[in-house]
Amino acid sequence: MAEPFHGTDLYNIDGLLSDDERLVRDNVARWVDDRFLPVIRDHHRNGTFPTEMSKELGEMGLLGTSLKGYGCPGLSAVTYGLAMEELERGDSGLRSFCSVQGSLAMYPIWAYGNERQKERFLPKMASGELIGCFGLTEPDYGSDPGGMITKAVKDGDHYVLSGEKLWITNGSVSDLAIVWAKVGGNEAANIRGFIVEKGSKGFSTYDVEGKFSLRASVTSGLVFDEVRVPAANLLEGVSGLKGPLGCLNQARYGIAWGAVGAGIACYKAALDYSKERIQFGKPIASFQLVQDKLAEMISRIVQAQLLVLQLGRLKDAGKHKPVQVSLAKRNNVRMALEIARTAREVLGANGIADEYPVFRHMTNLESVYTYEGTHDIHTLIIGREVTGIAAFE
Ligand code: TGC
Ligand code: FAD
Fold first, then answer.
1. Nearby residues of 304 by Cβ (< 8 Å), 6 or more positions away
2. Which atom of ligand 1 is found nearest the CA of 93?
3. Which is the closest atom of ligand 2 to the Cα of 211?
4. Residue 345's Cα: distance from chain center in Å?
5. Where are the domains of the chain?
6. Domain 13-127 top-level CATH class
7. Can you give the pTM of this predicted structure?
8. pLDDT of residue 282
9. Does domain 132-233 bear CATH number 2.40.110.10?
10. I want to staple 266 with a disulfide (CB 3.0 to 4.6 A). Which of 14, 155, 343, 355 is the partner?
11. Hey, whose CA ends up nearest to atom 14 of ligand 1?
12. Quick check: 131 and 217 in contact, CB under 8 A?
Protein backbone atom coordinates (compact mmCIF):
# COMPACT_ATOMS: atom_id res chain seq x y z
CA MET A 1 0.00 0.00 0.00
CA ALA A 2 1.50 3.36 -1.05
CA GLU A 3 2.16 5.97 1.62
CA PRO A 4 0.09 9.17 1.21
CA PHE A 5 1.90 12.02 -0.56
CA HIS A 6 2.95 14.78 1.83
CA GLY A 7 5.48 16.38 -0.47
CA THR A 8 3.84 19.78 -0.17
CA ASP A 9 4.55 20.11 3.56
CA LEU A 10 7.41 22.62 3.35
CA TYR A 11 6.19 24.31 6.53
CA ASN A 12 5.74 21.25 8.77
CA ILE A 13 1.99 21.86 8.86
CA ASP A 14 1.76 18.19 9.81
CA GLY A 15 3.32 19.15 13.12
CA LEU A 16 0.34 21.43 13.83
CA LEU A 17 -2.06 18.48 13.63
CA SER A 18 -2.99 16.06 16.40
CA ASP A 19 -2.34 12.32 16.08
CA ASP A 20 -6.08 11.73 15.65
CA GLU A 21 -6.32 14.32 12.87
CA ARG A 22 -3.38 12.76 11.02
CA LEU A 23 -4.80 9.27 11.47
CA VAL A 24 -8.15 10.15 9.89
CA ARG A 25 -6.47 12.07 7.08
CA ASP A 26 -4.10 9.22 6.25
CA ASN A 27 -6.90 6.64 6.28
CA VAL A 28 -8.93 8.75 3.86
CA ALA A 29 -5.84 9.31 1.71
CA ARG A 30 -5.23 5.55 1.45
CA TRP A 31 -8.86 4.91 0.58
CA VAL A 32 -8.71 7.54 -2.17
CA ASP A 33 -5.49 6.05 -3.55
CA ASP A 34 -6.58 2.40 -3.35
CA ARG A 35 -10.30 2.50 -4.02
CA PHE A 36 -11.15 5.73 -5.83
CA LEU A 37 -8.26 6.73 -8.08
CA PRO A 38 -8.30 3.39 -9.97
CA VAL A 39 -11.91 3.99 -11.06
CA ILE A 40 -12.21 7.75 -11.49
CA ARG A 41 -11.00 7.94 -15.07
CA ASP A 42 -13.72 5.62 -16.33
CA HIS A 43 -16.39 7.39 -14.29
CA HIS A 44 -15.22 10.70 -15.66
CA ARG A 45 -15.31 9.38 -19.23
CA ASN A 46 -18.75 7.85 -18.73
CA GLY A 47 -20.19 10.78 -16.81
CA THR A 48 -21.08 8.65 -13.79
CA PHE A 49 -20.48 8.72 -10.03
CA PRO A 50 -19.84 5.50 -8.05
CA THR A 51 -22.91 5.94 -5.84
CA GLU A 52 -22.40 2.39 -4.57
CA MET A 53 -19.38 3.70 -2.61
CA SER A 54 -21.67 5.71 -0.34
CA LYS A 55 -21.70 2.97 2.33
CA GLU A 56 -17.88 2.86 2.39
CA LEU A 57 -17.85 6.64 2.78
CA GLY A 58 -20.32 6.23 5.64
CA GLU A 59 -18.18 3.56 7.32
CA MET A 60 -15.21 5.95 7.21
CA GLY A 61 -17.27 8.66 8.93
CA LEU A 62 -17.24 10.94 5.89
CA LEU A 63 -20.99 11.62 5.79
CA GLY A 64 -21.87 14.24 8.41
CA THR A 65 -18.31 14.04 9.76
CA SER A 66 -18.53 16.85 12.30
CA LEU A 67 -22.17 16.42 13.33
CA LYS A 68 -22.75 15.02 16.82
CA GLY A 69 -25.25 12.28 17.76
CA TYR A 70 -27.74 10.32 15.63
CA GLY A 71 -25.04 7.96 14.34
CA CYS A 72 -22.77 10.80 13.17
CA PRO A 73 -19.04 10.74 14.00
CA GLY A 74 -18.83 14.15 15.76
CA LEU A 75 -15.23 14.76 14.67
CA SER A 76 -13.56 18.18 14.77
CA ALA A 77 -13.88 20.76 12.01
CA VAL A 78 -10.17 20.39 11.25
CA THR A 79 -10.53 16.61 10.88
CA TYR A 80 -13.50 17.15 8.58
CA GLY A 81 -11.47 19.61 6.52
CA LEU A 82 -8.50 17.26 6.20
CA ALA A 83 -10.82 14.52 5.00
CA MET A 84 -12.36 16.85 2.39
CA GLU A 85 -8.87 17.79 1.20
CA GLU A 86 -8.03 14.13 0.59
CA LEU A 87 -11.36 13.43 -1.12
CA GLU A 88 -10.94 16.33 -3.52
CA ARG A 89 -7.37 15.21 -4.25
CA GLY A 90 -9.30 12.32 -5.79
CA ASP A 91 -11.95 14.36 -7.58
CA SER A 92 -14.14 17.38 -6.82
CA GLY A 93 -17.15 15.16 -7.55
CA LEU A 94 -16.23 12.88 -4.65
CA ARG A 95 -15.88 15.80 -2.24
CA SER A 96 -19.12 17.26 -3.64
CA PHE A 97 -20.96 14.02 -2.88
CA CYS A 98 -19.84 14.17 0.77
CA SER A 99 -20.32 17.96 1.07
CA VAL A 100 -23.87 17.76 -0.15
CA GLN A 101 -24.75 14.75 1.98
CA GLY A 102 -23.16 16.03 5.20
CA SER A 103 -23.33 19.80 5.03
CA LEU A 104 -26.35 20.47 2.85
CA ALA A 105 -28.72 17.55 3.44
CA MET A 106 -27.86 16.22 6.93
CA TYR A 107 -26.88 19.55 8.51
CA PRO A 108 -30.29 21.25 7.97
CA ILE A 109 -32.06 18.26 9.51
CA TRP A 110 -29.57 18.26 12.39
CA ALA A 111 -29.72 22.05 12.93
CA TYR A 112 -33.35 22.92 12.06
CA GLY A 113 -35.25 19.62 12.26
CA ASN A 114 -37.19 18.12 15.16
CA GLU A 115 -36.23 14.99 17.12
CA ARG A 116 -38.46 12.74 15.07
CA GLN A 117 -36.91 13.91 11.79
CA LYS A 118 -33.37 13.59 13.18
CA GLU A 119 -33.95 10.05 14.45
CA ARG A 120 -35.70 8.99 11.27
CA PHE A 121 -33.20 10.29 8.72
CA LEU A 122 -29.77 11.05 10.19
CA PRO A 123 -28.48 7.56 11.17
CA LYS A 124 -29.30 6.16 7.74
CA MET A 125 -27.77 9.18 6.02
CA ALA A 126 -24.59 8.87 8.13
CA SER A 127 -24.22 5.25 7.05
CA GLY A 128 -24.82 6.05 3.38
CA GLU A 129 -28.02 4.02 3.26
CA LEU A 130 -30.04 7.14 2.39
CA ILE A 131 -28.72 9.83 0.06
CA GLY A 132 -29.82 13.46 0.18
CA CYS A 133 -29.59 16.56 -1.99
CA PHE A 134 -30.10 20.30 -1.50
CA GLY A 135 -32.43 22.28 -3.72
CA LEU A 136 -31.86 26.02 -3.48
CA THR A 137 -30.88 27.20 -7.00
CA GLU A 138 -33.60 27.69 -9.59
CA PRO A 139 -33.35 28.22 -13.35
CA ASP A 140 -33.82 31.99 -12.88
CA TYR A 141 -32.38 32.44 -9.37
CA GLY A 142 -28.76 31.42 -8.77
CA SER A 143 -26.65 34.03 -6.97
CA ASP A 144 -29.84 35.66 -5.72
CA PRO A 145 -31.71 32.77 -4.08
CA GLY A 146 -33.88 35.18 -2.09
CA GLY A 147 -35.82 35.79 -5.33
CA MET A 148 -36.83 32.14 -5.69
CA ILE A 149 -40.32 31.40 -7.00
CA THR A 150 -40.80 27.82 -5.77
CA LYS A 151 -43.70 28.01 -3.35
CA ALA A 152 -45.41 25.87 -0.74
CA VAL A 153 -49.07 26.37 0.10
CA LYS A 154 -50.46 24.98 3.35
CA ASP A 155 -53.39 22.59 2.82
CA GLY A 156 -54.54 20.84 6.00
CA ASP A 157 -51.72 18.68 7.32
CA HIS A 158 -49.73 19.01 4.07
CA TYR A 159 -47.90 21.66 2.08
CA VAL A 160 -48.38 21.70 -1.70
CA LEU A 161 -45.04 22.39 -3.41
CA SER A 162 -44.75 23.86 -6.93
CA GLY A 163 -41.65 24.96 -8.81
CA GLU A 164 -38.32 23.81 -10.16
CA LYS A 165 -34.75 23.56 -8.89
CA LEU A 166 -31.75 23.27 -11.20
CA TRP A 167 -28.09 22.26 -10.95
CA ILE A 168 -28.74 20.00 -8.00
CA THR A 169 -25.86 17.68 -7.06
CA ASN A 170 -27.01 14.09 -6.36
CA GLY A 171 -30.56 15.11 -7.37
CA SER A 172 -31.66 12.02 -9.29
CA VAL A 173 -29.86 9.54 -7.01
CA SER A 174 -31.27 10.96 -3.79
CA ASP A 175 -33.77 9.37 -1.46
CA LEU A 176 -34.68 12.76 -0.06
CA ALA A 177 -34.27 16.38 -1.09
CA ILE A 178 -33.99 19.38 1.20
CA VAL A 179 -36.05 21.89 -0.74
CA TRP A 180 -36.28 25.62 0.00
CA ALA A 181 -39.59 27.26 -0.93
CA LYS A 182 -41.64 30.30 0.01
CA VAL A 183 -44.72 29.95 2.18
CA GLY A 184 -46.90 33.07 1.84
CA GLY A 185 -45.62 36.25 0.16
CA ASN A 186 -42.59 36.79 -2.08
CA GLU A 187 -40.29 38.13 0.66
CA ALA A 188 -37.13 36.08 1.39
CA ALA A 189 -38.23 36.00 5.04
CA ASN A 190 -40.90 33.48 3.95
CA ILE A 191 -38.38 30.85 2.81
CA ARG A 192 -38.86 27.51 4.59
CA GLY A 193 -37.11 24.17 4.26
CA PHE A 194 -38.88 20.87 3.48
CA ILE A 195 -37.77 17.25 3.39
CA VAL A 196 -39.22 15.93 0.14
CA GLU A 197 -39.03 12.15 -0.17
CA LYS A 198 -38.34 10.25 -3.37
CA GLY A 199 -41.50 8.78 -4.86
CA SER A 200 -43.74 11.65 -3.71
CA LYS A 201 -46.47 12.12 -6.33
CA GLY A 202 -45.64 15.02 -8.68
CA PHE A 203 -41.91 15.02 -7.76
CA SER A 204 -39.62 14.15 -10.70
CA THR A 205 -35.96 14.62 -11.59
CA TYR A 206 -33.87 14.79 -14.74
CA ASP A 207 -30.12 14.86 -15.26
CA VAL A 208 -28.21 17.77 -16.76
CA GLU A 209 -26.65 16.49 -20.00
CA GLY A 210 -23.48 17.58 -21.79
CA LYS A 211 -21.39 18.75 -18.83
CA PHE A 212 -17.68 19.44 -19.45
CA SER A 213 -17.10 19.86 -15.71
CA LEU A 214 -17.77 17.64 -12.69
CA ARG A 215 -18.50 14.81 -15.06
CA ALA A 216 -18.09 12.27 -12.25
CA SER A 217 -20.93 13.81 -10.28
CA VAL A 218 -24.68 13.63 -10.75
CA THR A 219 -26.21 17.05 -11.49
CA SER A 220 -29.97 17.25 -11.83
CA GLY A 221 -33.10 19.29 -12.13
CA LEU A 222 -35.91 18.75 -9.59
CA VAL A 223 -39.50 19.38 -10.68
CA PHE A 224 -42.35 19.86 -8.20
CA ASP A 225 -45.79 19.62 -9.75
CA GLU A 226 -48.16 20.20 -6.85
CA VAL A 227 -46.30 17.78 -4.61
CA ARG A 228 -48.10 17.11 -1.31
CA VAL A 229 -45.45 17.16 1.41
CA PRO A 230 -46.58 16.15 4.91
CA ALA A 231 -46.39 19.07 7.37
CA ALA A 232 -44.32 16.68 9.49
CA ASN A 233 -41.53 17.15 6.90
CA LEU A 234 -41.25 20.92 7.43
CA LEU A 235 -37.95 21.99 9.04
CA GLU A 236 -39.56 23.92 11.87
CA GLY A 237 -36.44 25.48 13.32
CA VAL A 238 -35.70 28.16 10.74
CA SER A 239 -37.27 30.58 8.30
CA GLY A 240 -35.74 33.06 5.87
CA LEU A 241 -32.57 32.99 3.78
CA LYS A 242 -30.47 32.35 6.86
CA GLY A 243 -31.70 28.73 6.74
CA PRO A 244 -29.98 27.74 3.48
CA LEU A 245 -27.10 30.19 4.06
CA GLY A 246 -26.40 28.52 7.40
CA CYS A 247 -25.97 25.20 5.55
CA LEU A 248 -23.77 26.87 2.94
CA ASN A 249 -21.40 28.05 5.68
CA GLN A 250 -20.70 24.39 6.44
CA ALA A 251 -20.32 23.33 2.81
CA ARG A 252 -18.22 26.32 1.76
CA TYR A 253 -15.87 25.53 4.65
CA GLY A 254 -15.40 22.00 3.27
CA ILE A 255 -14.78 23.35 -0.24
CA ALA A 256 -12.04 25.69 1.04
CA TRP A 257 -10.19 22.60 2.31
CA GLY A 258 -11.13 20.43 -0.64
CA ALA A 259 -9.68 22.85 -3.18
CA VAL A 260 -6.27 22.39 -1.54
CA GLY A 261 -6.48 18.69 -2.38
CA ALA A 262 -7.25 19.40 -6.03
CA GLY A 263 -4.33 21.85 -6.12
CA ILE A 264 -1.98 19.26 -4.58
CA ALA A 265 -3.01 16.62 -7.13
CA CYS A 266 -2.17 19.00 -9.99
CA TYR A 267 1.08 20.19 -8.40
CA LYS A 268 2.23 16.60 -7.82
CA ALA A 269 1.41 15.64 -11.42
CA ALA A 270 3.39 18.65 -12.71
CA LEU A 271 6.34 18.01 -10.38
CA ASP A 272 6.61 14.31 -11.27
CA TYR A 273 6.19 15.00 -14.96
CA SER A 274 8.77 17.78 -15.01
CA LYS A 275 11.40 15.47 -13.52
CA GLU A 276 10.75 12.76 -16.09
CA ARG A 277 10.13 14.72 -19.28
CA ILE A 278 13.33 15.31 -21.22
CA GLN A 279 13.61 18.21 -23.69
CA PHE A 280 16.80 19.80 -25.02
CA GLY A 281 18.61 16.87 -23.40
CA LYS A 282 17.51 17.65 -19.84
CA PRO A 283 14.50 17.12 -17.57
CA ILE A 284 12.23 20.14 -18.03
CA ALA A 285 12.41 20.55 -14.21
CA SER A 286 15.93 21.90 -14.75
CA PHE A 287 14.66 24.95 -16.63
CA GLN A 288 14.16 28.12 -14.62
CA LEU A 289 10.79 28.89 -16.19
CA VAL A 290 9.44 25.50 -15.10
CA GLN A 291 10.87 25.92 -11.59
CA ASP A 292 9.18 29.31 -11.40
CA LYS A 293 5.84 27.59 -12.04
CA LEU A 294 6.52 24.88 -9.44
CA ALA A 295 7.68 27.44 -6.86
CA GLU A 296 4.52 29.48 -7.41
CA MET A 297 2.32 26.40 -7.06
CA ILE A 298 3.87 25.17 -3.82
CA SER A 299 3.82 28.70 -2.35
CA ARG A 300 0.12 29.07 -3.06
CA ILE A 301 -0.63 25.61 -1.63
CA VAL A 302 1.20 26.33 1.63
CA GLN A 303 -0.64 29.66 2.02
CA ALA A 304 -3.99 27.97 1.37
CA GLN A 305 -3.25 25.18 3.85
CA LEU A 306 -2.35 27.65 6.61
CA LEU A 307 -5.49 29.66 5.87
CA VAL A 308 -7.88 26.72 6.23
CA LEU A 309 -6.08 25.31 9.24
CA GLN A 310 -6.48 28.58 11.13
CA LEU A 311 -10.11 28.79 9.95
CA GLY A 312 -10.67 25.23 11.21
CA ARG A 313 -9.13 26.03 14.60
CA LEU A 314 -11.41 29.10 14.86
CA LYS A 315 -14.40 26.96 13.89
CA ASP A 316 -13.53 24.32 16.47
CA ALA A 317 -13.30 27.07 19.08
CA GLY A 318 -16.72 28.40 17.97
CA LYS A 319 -15.11 31.71 16.95
CA HIS A 320 -15.29 31.73 13.16
CA LYS A 321 -17.45 34.08 11.06
CA PRO A 322 -19.15 33.46 7.69
CA VAL A 323 -17.00 36.14 6.01
CA GLN A 324 -13.89 34.13 6.90
CA VAL A 325 -15.43 31.11 5.18
CA SER A 326 -16.12 33.25 2.11
CA LEU A 327 -12.54 34.50 2.08
CA ALA A 328 -11.14 30.96 2.32
CA LYS A 329 -13.49 29.53 -0.32
CA ARG A 330 -12.71 32.38 -2.70
CA ASN A 331 -8.95 32.30 -2.16
CA ASN A 332 -8.44 28.56 -2.20
CA VAL A 333 -10.63 27.73 -5.19
CA ARG A 334 -8.93 30.38 -7.28
CA MET A 335 -5.57 29.09 -6.07
CA ALA A 336 -6.47 25.55 -7.13
CA LEU A 337 -7.86 26.63 -10.50
CA GLU A 338 -4.73 28.65 -11.29
CA ILE A 339 -2.49 25.75 -10.22
CA ALA A 340 -4.48 23.37 -12.43
CA ARG A 341 -4.08 25.69 -15.42
CA THR A 342 -0.34 26.06 -14.79
CA ALA A 343 0.10 22.32 -14.28
CA ARG A 344 -1.66 21.72 -17.58
CA GLU A 345 0.89 23.96 -19.23
CA VAL A 346 3.81 22.07 -17.64
CA LEU A 347 2.46 18.79 -19.02
CA GLY A 348 2.39 20.13 -22.58
CA ALA A 349 0.17 18.07 -24.87
CA ASN A 350 -0.13 15.38 -22.20
CA GLY A 351 -1.87 18.00 -20.09
CA ILE A 352 -5.05 17.58 -22.07
CA ALA A 353 -5.12 13.76 -21.79
CA ASP A 354 -6.97 11.91 -19.05
CA GLU A 355 -3.99 9.67 -18.43
CA TYR A 356 -3.12 12.51 -16.04
CA PRO A 357 -5.57 14.02 -13.53
CA VAL A 358 -4.83 17.66 -14.33
CA PHE A 359 -7.38 18.53 -17.00
CA ARG A 360 -10.12 16.72 -15.05
CA HIS A 361 -9.33 18.79 -11.95
CA MET A 362 -9.09 21.95 -14.03
CA THR A 363 -12.52 21.53 -15.55
CA ASN A 364 -14.02 20.43 -12.22
CA LEU A 365 -12.67 23.54 -10.55
CA GLU A 366 -14.56 25.74 -13.01
CA SER A 367 -17.75 24.48 -11.32
CA VAL A 368 -16.30 24.77 -7.83
CA TYR A 369 -15.43 28.39 -8.66
CA THR A 370 -19.12 28.98 -9.47
CA TYR A 371 -21.10 26.88 -7.01
CA GLU A 372 -21.71 27.59 -3.34
CA GLY A 373 -21.51 31.30 -4.16
CA THR A 374 -19.52 32.39 -7.23
CA HIS A 375 -16.06 33.87 -6.82
CA ASP A 376 -17.55 37.33 -7.37
CA ILE A 377 -20.34 36.83 -4.84
CA HIS A 378 -17.68 36.02 -2.22
CA THR A 379 -15.77 39.14 -3.33
CA LEU A 380 -18.92 41.15 -2.57
CA ILE A 381 -19.44 39.42 0.80
CA ILE A 382 -15.88 40.39 1.79
CA GLY A 383 -16.39 43.88 0.31
CA ARG A 384 -19.54 44.33 2.41
CA GLU A 385 -17.69 43.27 5.54
CA VAL A 386 -14.77 45.64 5.10
CA THR A 387 -16.72 48.67 3.83
CA GLY A 388 -20.06 48.18 5.53
CA ILE A 389 -21.67 48.75 2.11
CA ALA A 390 -23.55 45.97 0.28
CA ALA A 391 -22.86 46.11 -3.47
CA PHE A 392 -25.06 43.22 -4.60
CA GLU A 393 -27.58 45.39 -6.41
P1 TGC B 1 -28.66 38.99 3.32
O2 TGC B 1 -29.53 40.18 3.57
O3 TGC B 1 -27.20 39.15 3.31
O4 TGC B 1 -29.02 37.86 4.40
C5 TGC B 1 -30.33 37.36 4.55
C6 TGC B 1 -30.39 36.67 5.90
O7 TGC B 1 -29.43 35.61 5.94
C8 TGC B 1 -28.47 35.86 6.98
N9 TGC B 1 -27.15 35.47 6.45
C10 TGC B 1 -26.52 34.36 6.85
N11 TGC B 1 -26.84 33.44 7.75
C12 TGC B 1 -26.00 32.42 7.90
N13 TGC B 1 -24.85 32.31 7.21
C14 TGC B 1 -24.49 33.22 6.28
N15 TGC B 1 -23.38 33.07 5.58
C16 TGC B 1 -25.34 34.31 6.06
N17 TGC B 1 -25.32 35.38 5.23
C18 TGC B 1 -26.43 36.08 5.48
C19 TGC B 1 -28.55 37.34 7.26
O20 TGC B 1 -28.11 37.63 8.56
C21 TGC B 1 -30.02 37.59 7.07
O22 TGC B 1 -30.67 37.07 8.23
P23 TGC B 1 -32.04 37.77 8.78
O24 TGC B 1 -32.29 37.11 10.08
O25 TGC B 1 -31.70 39.22 8.92
O26 TGC B 1 -33.07 37.49 7.74
O27 TGC B 1 -29.16 38.31 1.98
P28 TGC B 1 -29.04 38.79 0.48
O29 TGC B 1 -30.36 38.49 -0.20
O30 TGC B 1 -28.48 40.17 0.41
O31 TGC B 1 -28.01 37.75 -0.17
C32 TGC B 1 -26.71 37.76 0.16
C33 TGC B 1 -25.92 36.81 -0.76
C34 TGC B 1 -25.87 37.30 -2.19
C35 TGC B 1 -24.52 36.83 -0.19
C36 TGC B 1 -26.51 35.39 -0.72
O37 TGC B 1 -27.74 35.34 -1.36
C38 TGC B 1 -25.59 34.37 -1.32
O39 TGC B 1 -24.71 33.83 -0.65
N40 TGC B 1 -25.78 33.99 -2.64
C41 TGC B 1 -25.06 32.90 -3.25
C42 TGC B 1 -25.99 31.73 -3.44
C43 TGC B 1 -25.31 30.43 -3.24
O44 TGC B 1 -24.25 30.31 -2.64
N45 TGC B 1 -25.92 29.37 -3.68
C46 TGC B 1 -25.41 28.05 -3.48
C47 TGC B 1 -26.41 26.99 -3.87
S48 TGC B 1 -26.02 25.40 -3.20
C49 TGC B 1 -24.70 24.87 -4.09
O50 TGC B 1 -24.13 25.54 -4.91
C51 TGC B 1 -24.27 23.51 -3.79
S52 TGC B 1 -22.95 22.93 -4.74
C53 TGC B 1 -22.77 21.49 -3.93
C54 TGC B 1 -21.61 20.68 -4.27
O55 TGC B 1 -21.74 19.89 -5.23
O56 TGC B 1 -20.59 20.74 -3.53
P1 FAD C 1 -25.75 33.69 -11.92
O2 FAD C 1 -26.22 34.00 -10.55
O3 FAD C 1 -26.69 33.92 -13.05
O4 FAD C 1 -24.39 34.49 -12.18
C5 FAD C 1 -23.83 34.64 -13.49
C6 FAD C 1 -22.63 35.58 -13.36
O7 FAD C 1 -23.07 36.85 -12.86
C8 FAD C 1 -21.59 35.07 -12.37
O9 FAD C 1 -20.30 35.38 -12.84
C10 FAD C 1 -21.88 35.88 -11.11
O11 FAD C 1 -20.73 36.05 -10.26
C12 FAD C 1 -22.33 37.19 -11.71
N13 FAD C 1 -23.19 37.93 -10.77
C14 FAD C 1 -24.41 37.57 -10.29
N15 FAD C 1 -24.87 38.48 -9.43
C16 FAD C 1 -23.92 39.44 -9.36
C17 FAD C 1 -23.79 40.66 -8.63
N18 FAD C 1 -24.74 41.07 -7.78
N19 FAD C 1 -22.68 41.41 -8.81
C20 FAD C 1 -21.70 41.00 -9.65
N21 FAD C 1 -21.75 39.85 -10.36
C22 FAD C 1 -22.85 39.09 -10.21
N23 FAD C 1 -27.26 24.68 -6.41
C24 FAD C 1 -28.02 24.08 -5.44
O25 FAD C 1 -28.96 24.66 -4.92
N26 FAD C 1 -27.74 22.80 -5.04
C27 FAD C 1 -26.73 22.08 -5.58
O28 FAD C 1 -26.50 20.93 -5.17
C29 FAD C 1 -25.94 22.68 -6.60
N30 FAD C 1 -24.96 21.95 -7.22
C31 FAD C 1 -24.33 22.49 -8.31
C32 FAD C 1 -23.46 21.69 -9.05
C33 FAD C 1 -22.83 22.20 -10.18
C34 FAD C 1 -21.95 21.32 -11.01
C35 FAD C 1 -23.02 23.56 -10.56
C36 FAD C 1 -22.31 24.13 -11.74
C37 FAD C 1 -23.88 24.35 -9.83
C38 FAD C 1 -24.56 23.82 -8.71
N39 FAD C 1 -25.49 24.58 -8.00
C40 FAD C 1 -26.25 24.00 -7.00
C41 FAD C 1 -25.85 25.93 -8.46
C42 FAD C 1 -24.84 27.00 -8.06
O43 FAD C 1 -24.91 27.29 -6.71
C44 FAD C 1 -25.11 28.22 -8.92
O45 FAD C 1 -24.68 27.91 -10.23
C46 FAD C 1 -24.41 29.46 -8.40
O47 FAD C 1 -24.97 29.88 -7.18
C48 FAD C 1 -24.46 30.63 -9.41
O49 FAD C 1 -25.73 30.80 -9.91
P50 FAD C 1 -25.98 30.89 -11.52
O51 FAD C 1 -25.28 29.73 -12.12
O52 FAD C 1 -27.42 31.02 -11.72
O53 FAD C 1 -25.21 32.17 -11.97
1. 259, 260, 263, 331, 332, 335, 336
2. 55
3. 34
4. 26
5. 13-127, 132-233, 242-387
6. mainly alpha
7. 0.97
8. 98
9. yes
10. 343
11. 245
12. no
